[in-house]
């Protein structure tokens, strides 16, 4: 009976944005750019750990605007500067500098024509690298790609590193339009093209469609991010190792069960003696004893071997069970670590939100303090009201010799700061008390009257000047100032 063959899965196409600790997706700063360059040259810890034993990063496919080969192809700083020079971009702006995309295709499709890591000898690997670059140029704009890499020194295969910086017209420069790098605008355009709300879903749609048209019609799009949990390369390796350990444990357990369930060795039977053997019974008995002794010896050997095999298999079964328990422990620890990482990410997000809120509140407080300081400066710099030149004219007091006459005939003696009404026996300092006396109004009405004719700053300066003089309340018939 032939073994049952499961369904063959079609090759899958996917795109992943490479994320960096602390900065997230995309290359946002020159520090991110140099970090990507160090990883490509295997100068960082993560790059060294990802290599297969004995593999050399110089065997990887490397191309950039700085040149081909390992040294020039991984010189991302020089390649990015050359990209800016070719497009006439002078400033980096405030947005991301570039996208670092991992364009993925199932290694099983590459295995059909050779080693999936042999980019020189496997035609499908070369085709994948070429089409990944073509796709990025079609998706984000001609000449947007400035570096391509295919790693042959790692365990995995089918991943093409694409570094590109989409160039768009700066819409803010109305007079003289200029070019700038705009990653977000390029992703928004792609999302709109495929009718997606999320640009990363549009990335998957776009690459899968291109791969079907230019590589193989049987290629399908990878699963939606909401349906499948993505693992880091380290987590994937741990998952595969745990699965291998569990499979080895299962096989050993089945082997032990087969041995334990095997029937015991058969005991040889003795045929009845013939007539000639009956005539010579001693010889026949000796022959039968010899046969029984030989069978007994073989049975003893087989039993000893079986007992040894049972002990060996029992020991291996214990080891397999221990490995299975260890794999389950690793899985639990990985889940716990992921939960802790999610909790830390939530805490970090909450901390960032609180920091942003405090920053906003601090900025608002600073703005209010600046407004208050400006108002205080305006009050301090504004001159007090002049009774003769300004207030008397607004009150309709006309000069008549040493006095100023009101419309009802009352006489006021005025100078720049003080006033006196001799007939009423009243006197005072400042414009507010003069208005209260001349118009026979209360303090609040006098303030409103002055504010309508002069600026609020002038009236505030007048109040400050009167307070500094510490003038007593006005006398006479004028209404008194309300006490607080």
In short:
Helix content is 54%, strand content 13%. It has 484 residues and is an alpha+beta fold.
Describe the structure.
The chain is an alpha+beta fold and 484 residues long. It contains 15 helices and 16 strands. The strands form 4 sheets. A 7-stranded mixed sheet has the order 5-4-7-8-6-1-11, with helices on both faces. A 5-stranded antiparallel sheet has the order 12-13-14-15-16, with helices on one face. A hairpin with a 2-residue loop joins strand 12 and strand 13 (403-405). The longest helix is centred in the C-terminal third of the chain and has 101 residues, at 281-381. The chain is elongated and about 180 Å long.
Shape, please? elongated
Major β-sheet profile = 7 strands, mixed
Average pLDDT figure: 81
Unreliable residue runs: 1-7, 470-484
SS field, number of helical segments: 15
The main sheet orders its strands as 5-4-7-8-6-1-11
Strand content: 5-15%
Helix content: 40-55%
The SS-based structural class is alpha+beta
In total, how many beta strands?
16
Radius of gyration: 47 Å
Distance between the termini: 107 Å
SSE diagram, text form:
Layout (H helix, E strand, L loop, with lengths): L11 E6 L1 E2 L3 E2 L4 H11 L4 H5 L11 E4 L2 E2 L1 H4 L2 H12 L11 E7 L1 H5 L11 H18 L4 E6 L8 E6 L2 E3 L9 E3 L1 H11 L5 H16 L5 E2 L11 H29 L13 H5 L1 H101 L5 H9 L2 E3 L2 E3 L5 E4 L3 E4 L4 E4 L1 H9 L3 H11 L2 H14 L15
Parallel strand pairs: 1-11
Antiparallel strand pairs: 1-6, 2-3, 4-5, 4-7, 6-8, 7-8, 9-10, 12-13, 13-14, 14-15, 15-16
Helix pairs in contact: 6-8, 7-8, 9-11, 11-15, 13-14
């Amino acid at each position: 009976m032939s073994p049952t063959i499961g369904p063959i899965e079609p090759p899958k196409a996917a795109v992943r944005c490479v994320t960096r600790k602390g900065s997230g997706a995309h290359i946002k700063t020159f520090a991110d750019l140099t970090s990507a360059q160090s990883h490509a040259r295997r100068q960082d810890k993560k790059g060294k750990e990802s290599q297969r034993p004995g593999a050399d990063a110089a065997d990887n496919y490397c191309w950039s605007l700085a040149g081909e080969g390992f040294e020039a192809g991984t010189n991302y700083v020089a390649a990015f500067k050359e990209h800016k020079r070719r497009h006439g971009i002078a400033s980096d702006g405030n947005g991301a500098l570039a996208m670092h995309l991992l364009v993925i295709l199932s290694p099983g499709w590459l295995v059909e024509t050779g080693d999936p890591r042999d980019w020189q000898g496997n035609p499908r690997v070369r085709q994948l690298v070429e089409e990944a670059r073509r796709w990025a140029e079609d998706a984000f704009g001609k000449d947007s790609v400035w570096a391509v890499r295919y790693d042959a020194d790692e365990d995995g295969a089918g991943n093409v590193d694409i570094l590109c910086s989409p160039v768009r017209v700066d819409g803010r420069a109305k007079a003289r339009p200029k070019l700038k790098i705009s990653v977000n605008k390029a992703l928004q355009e792609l999302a709109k093209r495929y009718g997606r709300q999320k640009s990363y879903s549009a990335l998957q749609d776009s690459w899968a469609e291109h791969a079907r048209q230019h590589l193989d019609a049987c290629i399908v799009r990878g699963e939606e991010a909401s349906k499948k949990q993505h693992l880091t390369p380290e987590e994937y390796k741990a998952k595969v190792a745990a699965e291998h350990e569990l499979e080895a444990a299962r096989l050993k357990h089945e082997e032990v069960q087969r041995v334990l369930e095997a029937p015991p060795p058969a005991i040889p039977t003795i045929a009845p003696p013939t007539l000639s053997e009956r005539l010579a019974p001693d010889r026949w008995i000796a022959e039968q004893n010899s046969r029984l002794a030989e069978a007994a010896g073989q049975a003893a050997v087989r039993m000893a071997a079986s007992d040894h095999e049972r002990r060996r298999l029992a020991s291996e079964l214990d080891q397999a069970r221990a490995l299975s328990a260890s794999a389950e422990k690793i899985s639990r620890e990985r889940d716990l670590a992921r939960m802790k990482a999610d909790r830390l990410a939530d805490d970090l997000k909450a901390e960032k939100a609180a920091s942003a809120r405090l920053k906003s509140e601090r900025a608002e407080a600073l703005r209010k303090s600046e407004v208050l300081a400006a108002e205080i400066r305006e009050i301090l710099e504004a001159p007090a009201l002049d009774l003769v030149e300004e207030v008397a004219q607004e009150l309709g007091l006309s000069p008549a010799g040493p006095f100023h006459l009101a419309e009802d005939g009352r006489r006021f003696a005025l100078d720049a700061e003080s006033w006196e009404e001799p007939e009423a026996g009243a006197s005072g300092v400042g414009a507010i008390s003069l208005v209260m006396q001349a118009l026979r109004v209360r303090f609040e009405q006098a303030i409103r009257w002055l504010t309508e004719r002069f600026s609020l700053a002038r009236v505030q300066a007048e109040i400050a000047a009167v307070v500094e003089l510490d003038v007593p309340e006005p006398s006479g018939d004028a209404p008194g100032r309300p006490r607080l």
